[in-house]
TrEMBL record:
Alphabetized GO MF terms: histidine phosphotransfer kinase activity; phosphorelay sensor kinase activity
Residue ranges of every copy of the Histidine kinase domain listed in the record: 548-770
InterPro entries associated with the record: CheY-like_superfamily, HATPase_C_sf, HATPase_dom, His_kinase_dom, HisK_dim/P_dom, HisK_dim/P_sf, Sig_transdc_His_kin-like_C, Sig_transdc_resp-reg_receiver
Pfam families: HATPase_c, HisKA, Response_reg, SBP_bac_3
Positions where 4-aspartylphosphate occurs in the chain: D845
Name of the protein this chain belongs to: Circadian input-output histidine kinase CikA
Transmembrane segments: 503-523
Function in brief: May play the central regulatory role in sporulation. It may be an element of the effector pathway responsible for the activation of sporulation genes in response to nutritional stress. Spo0A may act in concert with spo0H (a sigma factor) to control the expression of some genes that are critical to the sporulation process.
Keyword line: Kinase, Membrane, Phosphoprotein, Transferase, Transmembrane, Transmembrane helix, Two-component regulatory system
Amino acid sequence: MVRIRRGAAAFFSLLLLVFLLGMAKAGTVFVAVPDSTQGSRAIRVGCPEMSGFFEVDDQGNSTGYACELMREISMYTGQTYTFVKTSYEDGYKQLQAGKIDLFLPVQKTEQAKKQYEFSADVFCRDNAVLLVKPNAGYYFNDFARWNEMTVGALRSSQDNSSLVQYLQKHGCSVKLKAVYSDLHALRSALENGEINAMLASSNQTLTNCKVIAQLPSSDVYIAAKKGNTALMKTFNYALRQVELNTPHFMDDLEMDYFSVGKNVMPAYTISEAKYLGLNPEVTVVVNGEFQRERELQSMQTFIDQLKQKMGIQIRLLRVDSVQAAYDKLASGEADAILPINRDVNWTKTQNMWLTQPFLSMGSYRITLAGSTAQQTAAVLKDSYQMYLCSNVKGQTLIPCDTTDQAIDLVLRGEADVTYCNRIEGDYFSSQPKYSSRLSFIMDDKGRQQYAVGISKKENAILISIFNKAIGCIPPSQIKSIFAVTYESEKMSLFDYFQLNPEILVGFSISVTAAAVLLVLFGVSNAAVKRKNKQLESAMRAKSDFLARMSHDLRTPMSAILGLAHLGSEECTEPPVKEYFSKINSSSTYLLSLINDILDMSRIENKKVQLHPEPVELEPFYQSIDTIMRPLLEEKQIRLVTDKKGAQVSCLRFDRLHMQQVLLNLLTNAVKFSNHGGRVRFTQNYVREENHMVHVCVTVQDYGIGMSEAFMQRIFHPFEQEHNRRMPEQTGTGLGLSIVKNLVEMMDGTVSVQSELGEGSTFTVDLRLPEVPHTLQGEETDTASCQLALAGQHVLLAEDHPLNAEITCRLLRSRGILPERAADGREAVERFAASPDHYYSAVLMDIRMPIMNGLEAARAIRALNRADAKTVPMLAMSANAFDEDVRESMQAGMNAHLAKPIEPRQLFEELEKWLANGSN
């Protein structure tokens, strides 16, 4: 995307600010904003459907670059934009007829300017391309072999005439078949051989294809009917505000929607293909500035991507210095070097050509904390930083063999400053022994572009080969490859005292004091033991209290939720029905707070146990989407799901706790996202040895973000950050603490990256065993397994009168015939006195007088009658801990439902057990 006149806009904005400040001294200043009186109704925007630019799903939801940008523009106009799917041919007619107010994307020709109003700035760039299937025998720009080739195109596309002119200019004539109404039909025609190639806009996400020609790029705009200057004036103002206030917004949209898709392969010329055939291996040396293992791993991963695109072997050489890398290139041992700064003047001295940039990053200026001196600079010998510093007047340079050596010179005060790239600087800033004494200043304004350097001893054709391979790797993927992170290394005692000599004195004093304290410790040891016993007693009391609180809170909650459900179903008056619905929502939220507190207590007391099982991934993620859907729809948030890496269908893990982890992260992302925003949910699978799979799950939002200070304690219990963009904080602050504890129980890690106003990204890394596909038909169609419950006799053992009344009414609403027993003994007596198979199921409360539910269950199972061993028994208890579930199963229950029980859950369990024919 080209940013038209951005520099000029920024300059004039600065002049305007100075003018306003001057005027403010004299009196009140009024700033004119374009009139948006048309904001009282929805503005209709016509647009042809194009992948990545504008698409409409089966539910009628509009997505794509154009939709996202128009939503952002609406923030400044106050207008609502409604998209209308049209074609190029019909779009102009509808604009003239007033059926739509705006039309895009259109080209601003001299003839069109007489008929329409155009936006002042470019909406985006159009680079039309000619595509063929990956295995097609066509070469890039091989015009002579394309004569009589059939090219498919969209009907009335603006690029059709441009293609014809472009090919005629190169002496090529093709059969243009511009009869297709949409991109789907065009792609189908290419796949089934109806056409040899297809013309498409590069604004469309390219997948499973190769580009054999690229037309000259053109600017595209948005158009309005001639004379509608007020609407276009408002739009122009808003578009400039987007570029000035959020300069990276449109770049991010490009990354999301216009980057290269999957399985895109380079289309080489005949000469390039011949070169690759004669040179099956290329040797690339790593720039000696990068020495750490994680940096080298990133280089190898990037090389593997290039190897797959180029179809040849690429050997990676590692060296121990910058000069050694240049020597390999000069001697011919290496054909290329990466990553190298894309400075043409500098690389001329190194006798190399440069590819297009594939990576951009800033550099660090490193000094002693609080120092501003830069007179003496320690720099890496023969590096690009040394080249830059050599042009600074009055600065003395100290060449160093390694960045570590340069850092040490700054620490010892022998140099004022050193410089290094962002990846290296991130390593040093992550280590306490450096970060505690040094200042790391990131120079983002001087961001460096990095490319592959090709030796001029090689054939220049290698440049275009590398460029095409780089262009077929999605930028987001390259950025991810080089997103190197470091963990803090443990500092040795020697390093610690060397960096902090003053502490050595304190340490000596501490050793002496410790000897004295040992004597005192012996005296106080007995008192400590007594205190420990008191703490153990207090912990037991706490656990008993939480168990009682769980039961006592859940019992009335069960009544509240049950009555709210019945009231909502039976009430016919809309206002009252809404009251019941709000009671139900509030009660559900209160229950989630209770669950968070109890979950945290169970984790602290080490009472949570994992139960790994084979889990089919597709239905597992579908269940998460089903649970999240109402929350997403409430805030109109789009959930973007992305699956990467190996195709994995079944893994072994604890289904319930994994679901709890992912739902907590997704709910958190939605909670702190802006209304109408998006959340990205990514799963990446990498197979390892011994049937293990490295699973990396990320949840990214684009909401309010968080401060760096808060990120240090985000996983602590009860922590919440007060943010002026979201002043009303809800929840207990336990969700992320629970996530961290559960992930660590699974031997995994969870991390977070965030920036205020930009959003947050949570990453969960796990290693899980892969198991064979185990789906055995248990996931059946819900409609086919529904069992009519009407007429079934169910025995309900419940001592609480109100809960018993509510449960009976719920059962009767499905035609079930409930019979109540007030305690466990009465339940056993009723069951024993009934005919065989009279009761289809038993619903058993646990805490009851005379005989509790566990005793009653054992007594029923011990009866000498045909149905005693098989009748389904479901525990319905306010006791919700793992040990409670275990005790229920051991007593003979078939399932354990924790109160408050959702009616849907109760009926599903009854249908499940009765449908299985357990009785």
